[in-house]
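Quick check before the chapter quiz. The format below is the same one you will see on the exam, so make sure you can read both the input and the output lines.
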Amino acid sequence: MTTIDAIRREYERYPPRGLRRMSRWFKKRLPTRLYARTLLIIIIPIVLLQSVVAFVFMERHWQTVTQRLSMAVTRDIAAVIDMIDTFPQEGSYDQIVRIARERLELNVAIDPAGDLPPPRPKPFFSILDQILSEEITRQIQRPFWIDTVGNSRIVEIRIQLDNGQILRVFAKRSQAYASNTHIFLLWMVGTSLVLLAIAILFLRGQIRPILKLTQAAESFGKGQKMPEDFRPRGADEIRRAGLAFIQMRERIERQMEQRTAMLSGVSHDLRTILTRFRLQLALAGDSPEIESLNKDVDDMQSMLDSYLSFARSDAEEDVGSVSLNEIMERVAADGRLRGATVWVDIEGEDIVQIRPNAFNRMMTNLVANACRHADNVDISVTHRGKWLTVLIDDDGPGIPEDAREDVFRPFFRLDEARNQDESGSGLGLSIVRDIARSHGGDVTLSESPNKGLRAQVRLPV
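Here is the expected output.
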């Protein structure tokens, strides 16, 4: 590999800082929505095309037409000067004035000898002033003064004759200047607006199915029902994506139903066996061995309930209106019964649209877990906009940072930092995260300001 190739590759991997900064600046100002970006894809080529046409074609056409008109007016003025020089009039130039007015559409007047006015400041973007001056200099070759400034429809030209007299010529601006350019611009802008309106109408028809598909996917991610009016629409690719989403959702729901049915059957069979155990132990009498067996049966019953709760945590539940004050006060009261001091602070709207049973189970597991290992628990709830945030802080022993993700795994036990009772199944936090993610949110653990553990729940509502 040559040195040039190495430099090129290094340039492609790490562009100059100025380019990176410009790229970041450009990306920040680009719209993020598909509708706005597609409009830019349509509008930018139209604007560039019209700019090129207006600059290349229109500017040259405008200049060419103006030059030809100015050349014709200057030629007529030169003809008037030739008539004055060829047929001098001692008293009056009425016939020359008449011929110029009737045949050439020029209003002329011949003033006594004098000086021309001082030159007027030339406008910066005046094609007429530049071209007309060049034509008078080329064809007439005499001192002159012109006035093309302003929006007046008349152009005044003064030329000093050989005998010192001043020829004043008043010509229509349209005779020397292509004044109909605005018609072309109006047509260009008008057709562009029509094309843009048509593009927007078709674009809205193509974007709407994508938005519907996004809404259906978000509802499915939050555990809500699919919108009733959803069906595959739009282009073939969008229809195929919508159909694939419907089939995917049906497979997932069918799998969940089969698992729930299987677990219900297993639960029924196991509960029947546990009931027989209890009956046989009750008939066996009282003894230390029987008491130990009863405790084992109770543990098995508790573990079975935990497993079923974990397996059913993603079962579909209708979304309903929930009072945050009622749920949090009930959860706090349950925590106080466990011997902990629980404080609740709620900000924002009280009513939230969420799955009631799942949300209650999630809050109960989190607060119960905090009260089991701490003496003081602070619950902070914030409901603003489209998000619900719950912070649960305790003053317990906490969890090491490298183990805060492991505790969400099913059946994981952290006996060293936060001892769990022997009957625990290691599914409490797994159920919590499963419920949060089924709502489209998540649960994270971090260090609490109270030197314990902070559990943060963030849900879209």
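If your answer matched, good. The mean pLDDT is 79.
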